Amino acid sequence: MTATMLVMLAFVVANSSQAYTAIPEDSSSAYMIEKMPELRYYENYEDLQADGKTAVVYPIFTQSAYDWNGFHDYYSGYCDSCTSVKLHQTYEKTFSSSGNGFRVLEFLGYQVIDDIDIDKNPAILGQFDKVILLHNEFVTRAEFDAIVNHPNVIYLYPNALTSKISVNYETNVISLIRGPAHPTPDVVSGFDWKHINTQYEKDWNCDSWNFYKIDNGHMLNCYPETFLPDNGYEILKKLKTL
């Protein structure tokens, strides 16, 4: 099992006891904010709204990869043949696909594209001055090349670009080609990229968050999915200056 999948599994287990908690009648506002974290930034919209030509890349490939009988089950050892999975057609905004971060950035007016847009038309990134990646763990070679060759990419979530996949758009199936420990145990990452930062994905607290510089942009040194809904103002503010 990859480190990312262990993190996701831990999150699900930790929150499963709350799945059937009754919602008091007088807590509709709290419930709405819990389900729609972007509402916390309503009063700060003018400070944080997108400016310039900036795109957010929704990780539809990664969302699909974490489906049941998909790469998650393969890495967990439950299914030796689960290295292919159906490509999702809708944005489910789940934890594995950076649902909280995406909802907030979409609310703030950032232009949304996804993995498919880049894979089919890598030149699309040339339309944007800045590109914000989320948990885009599984990508194609075409998408990887387009991203690492863009001059200003913000890697908002650790563990991006770690696994190589292929896509068959006729059958709507993605397949795992190369990633951590696949196809052989000695493989570290899908593209042998020097900026893999998986070590930061276990830091959910983001107490000492920082954007550090790399060749083509900046990376955040923590996993902000549970931090952004309540405490992300300064991170979101910093995004506008990078």
Structural commentary:
With 242 residues, this protein is α/β, with parallel strands linked by helices. 30% of the residues lie in helices and 17% in strands. The two termini are 34 Å apart. 38% of the residues are buried.
Helices and strands in order, then pairings?
Layout: H1 3-16, H2 28-35, H3 45-48, E1 54-58, H4 60-65, H5 71-76, E2 84-86, H6 99-107, E3 111-114, H7 115-120, E4 130-133, E5 138-139, H8 141-148, E6 153-155, E7 163-168, E8 173-178, E9 211-214, E10 217-220, H9 228-231, H10 233-239
Parallel strand pairs: 1-3, 1-4, 4-6, 5-7, 6-10
Antiparallel strand pairs: 2-8, 7-8, 9-10
Keywords:
242 residues; alpha/beta; six-stranded mixed beta sheet; four-stranded mixed beta sheet; 10 helices; globular
Largest sheet, spatial ordering of strands = 3-1-4-6-10-9
What is Rg? Answer: 18 Å
Order of helices and strands: HHHEHHEHEHEEHEEEEEHH
What is the strand content? 15-25%
Note the total helix count: 10
Gap between N and C termini, in Å? 34 Å
Range of helix content: 25-40%
Low-pLDDT ranges:
5-33
* Overall average residue pLDDT: 86
Global geometry: globular
Structural class comes to: alpha/beta
Main beta sheet: strand number and arrangement?
Answer: 6 strands, mixed
- Number-wise, the strands total 10
